[in-house]
């Protein structure tokens, strides 16, 4: 009935309309990038609420990031007004937290349990490995942490892991898993993977809980379904109340507690599956029809996002993958400009090219920096772009990377708040036990731990009863007593959240320490802490009833993409992010950088056909983010781990048909030529233009001239080659520390 006429169906093509109005059976929408999958989900929700008389609280829509959830909610709001508040539009993790908070007691947790992110769980695993006296060389805690995460994504608990273990390593892992899990429970904490796994467990152990949610959620929708892993897959099955996968003889196992299955609608694109390393499996999308026998599948083929040139490039690249269904994605937006290619001499030159091109686009084509995104393969690559952008005064924002919430000082303050909310949160407690330094050394900490273990009490209890712990030096004991008193005092205060945070910084001496240190880094640490306090203030304003636990939960769940600045044009600043973070987004202008074999595709994938296919999907994701203009670039030489790497051009470049590409520099430029240019000193005029330039050989006392700061005298030189840092006294301009490799300096 695509003929249905309704304002909510305006601006949709017939297939999209079909998908929006489809009723009854499970629905799969598979389609390439930019074909309106997310748009269909949004319109479908609006349509359900306004035409099918579905109540907002009956809708659960799962998105991949909180940012996507927020956007979807806003769009639904715009379509049908603010009735949508009771609707659950959120990530898997957020939905699970909500469910678990209500039901935590059934699983032996309090409703204010802590959430451990990846860094916390790695710390905990490191403690566990020490406790089990495992040699960190043979059994690296990080690797154990990752493997436990994989097991949880497969819904394998530690008993099963133990039963299945065949090698010594697997048995050791299972043991560490069991201990880790016990420590988590003692800390009243769940890690990210637990959030999903424990919700599945909850539904399986408590049919009444499962039934409650099945009655509630009559419509379940999932965006980016290709990136769900097994645990998430099972969670969806449990939620909609459909039987477990068919058994070997094809018999479905009945389930559902007598509730009619909910309507399920999932959308995805197998070509955009880029989270295999987190256990995501394309299988979930490829076998949807088998998993849900009455399912209907709708294909979308028109792309509304990109020019035909961009789309043809994307199609050409992805078609090299063998294990995929061919698709025919087209666009009626015309060819648009060609893709621009650039081979830089090195990564600084590459960043400089981007900066200059953004300026040029602003001058010649009215493109604002906010319409531009720069993508790279790994987080670390952002640094060079940041340095160049700062130097050239180009406003930018990094999404992901060393994220705000991963900074040491931010984590410290949060750890204090977490301890105040949950004294049993041992990881947080031990993080701050001697921060700032208060004379509780590692030895004292270990003694308390041993005491607590022997007495079978939590670490916090151990601290409170430290007097009974044998062997503690009086000085340590006094320090511990003061620390306990400090926390109890803070806990007893009736303060608003932001005031509490402020009070923590004051009463622990944390703020004073930073203020008086004289280390310039500490200044930015203070800024970050103030930023966190404003986050708390914003939270208070938005959630007058919100508790400390609510706040910590919100903070724990912010995903990378949440840090994209708000507003239509991303606040007029260039967005820098990894390809993974770019999923689902779109930008008028995209720079795809680091297209070198060994960088992108990632070193790890070379010679691994399956991983190479995943890298190619990542390239497909990257290319298809671009609406109008796409740039592809590589560097002939790139410093990697402190030494120059001469990477060949990415194979993905060769896969883009050459008539779609317009090279701004010699596409054949090789590492060899670049290296030569580097040796032979190029004139200063080309230096800031990104032409080849050698690094001047400087020593203290040398006189130099800098493009911006003028005349100066070298004070110190540290490090060598690409890494060399030089401190220069520019007289009234002050002292500056610069990276020699690309500072526009001439030796006089
Ligand atoms: P991705 O695979 O990257 O997640 P998608 O399939 O979810 O992409 P959307 O983000 O929903 O695609 O849509 C891509 C762009 O095309 C958006 O700007 C959207 O508003 C627009 N669009 C989608 N369908 C239509 C349509 N029928 N008419 C006009 N514009 C559309
Ligand atoms: Mg989408």
TrEMBL record:
SUPFAM superfamilies: P-loop containing nucleoside triphosphate hydrolases. It catalyses: ATP + H2O = ADP + phosphate + H(+); Couples ATP hydrolysis with the unwinding of duplex DNA by translocating in the 3'-5' direction. This is ATP-dependent DNA helicase. One of its GO terms (biological process) is response to radiation. Residues 308-584 form the UvrD-like helicase C-terminal domain. Residues 10-307 form the UvrD-like helicase ATP-binding domain. It is an enzyme of class 5 (isomerase). Keywords: ATP-binding, DNA-binding, Helicase, Hydrolase, Isomerase, Nucleotide-binding.
